[in-house]
Amino acid sequence: MAINRQILLAETPKAKLGPEHFQLRQGEMPAPKDGEVLLRVRYISLDAANRAWMQGATYRGAVVAGTVMAGGAVAEVVDSKAQGFAPGDLVFADTGWQDYAALPAKALIKVPRVEPLTHLLSVYGIAGLTAYFGLLNIGQPRAGETVVVSAAAGSVGSIVGQIAKIKGCRAIGIAGGAAKCDWLVRELGFDAAVDYKAGPVFKALKAAAPDGIDVYFDNVGGDILEACIALMNNRGRIACCGAISAYDGPAPASGPRGVPGLIVVKRLTLKGFIVTDFFAQRDVALADLQAWVAAGKLKVQEDVIDGLENTPRALIGLLAGDNRGKRMVKVA
Ligand SMILES: NC(=O)c1ccc[n+]([C@@H]2O[C@H](COP(=O)([O-])OP(=O)(O)OC[C@H]3O[C@@H](n4cnc5c(N)ncnc54)[C@H](OP(=O)(O)O)[C@@H]3O)[C@@H](O)[C@H]2O)c1
Fold first, then answer.
1. N or C: which end of the chain has fewer CB within 10 A?
2. Sheet with 22-28, side-by-side order of all strands
3. CB of 219 sitting under 6 A from ligand 1
4. Cα dist. 225→59, 213, 216, 217 in Å?
């Protein structure tokens, strides 16, 4: 019988996430029950939100210490006791960080076999769809407007800026470090990039966006959100996608600080969303993303780390900003 390696969240972190919070366990390959499918995990998606799930319930339940670490993955069906799934089929599912998972058919999303398979987690996966729906449906950018995105060199942010360019906007990224900022402008075609680690964001962003900000795609919250709100134009739109600045520590204190007045005076719209809200429109989004990739208008940046045992390190590094584009771990 094949061995199933599993990475557990051994202890809930109280401050920064470290390797000591994880534990590798070897178990037996699970057997699917009626209505279930046995999956071989191929690529695990690393997401900043993985860390937020350890802080408590969000749009999903909290990840509890002593259980297999949760996480989305592209996986292959190896055995099926459910109608509609056969060995060889590919799915996206929350398999968790392990070699094999037996899951009910209703928890699986069937995905086509594309080349390379990694695109199912990057541009054609949650990252690409989040960028697409968050920018276009929530941000509603118009040609000529200025779009700012934070965590701009990450998986979602790098796609947001490129879609903004495709839509005829001025795209400005906020990212950590000169090398990432340079890459955004030279390789991905952003009009400007602000290094939030080099000094106050407000001053640099004001210089990069002399006409103000019309759409802010917020991946980070905190000080960067505050700086952007101060630079928003009247009737600007803020797509609230995530709050990375608050993930890698204790659960954050509640309440926005000092911003409601500006929201009123500038008639801003701040709107949160979860990518699955828009899944009914997924085919249209995927067709657009595919066409942009094929035309060379959208560059796909992937950061693939080999080996299930390296998954904790891959997440810890992502939270510290050592990824460019979509990070994932190749399991098999
Ligand atoms: N709403 C939804 O449905 C949905 C779906 C998917 C993802 N998301 C959100 O999308 C965002 C991007 O997540 P991802 O998984 O794709 O990660 P990612 O952008 O690939 O990587 C995270 C990046 O965040 C940056 N970062 C870390 N700490 C930061 C801080 N304190 N301030 C500013 N930047 C910081 C790092 O880059 P630097 O080097 O630039 O610091 C790091 O590379 C997250 O907020 C996530 O929760 C939302």
1. N
2. 22-28, 3-9, 67-68
3. yes
4. 21, 12, 9, 9
